[in-house]
Amino acid sequence: MDVGSDCASTLQVDAGIAHVLDDVIPALEHAPGLTGVWLADRAKGKRLSIMVWQSEAAASAAMAEVQKRIAASKLRADPNPVSESLCSCVDR
Length: 92
Fold this sequence. Notes:
There is one protein chain. About 40% of the residues lie in helices and about 25% in strands. It is of the alpha+beta class. It has one domain (about 1-80): Alpha-Beta Plaits. Strands 2-3-1-4 form a 4-stranded antiparallel sheet. A hairpin with a 4-residue loop joins strand 2 (about 35-40) and strand 3. The mean pLDDT is about 80.
């Protein structure tokens, strides 16, 4: 799954980074079957999260944990992604 966001300001990029550090990574740090990379370009106002999961079931279970953590920490606005896509890996 990849999630990308176009942000209008550096503050929005920073809010997105804080969201990943405070909500996403703690919820996923022990998730089985995950390899992830989170990228940010403050100058262009863009963020990109790339998560590669061993299975769709593992992804669904772990992302449910992320949603629980987000719901419990509504002290700040949740930066919503502008796009989200699910791709399958091609293996030889």
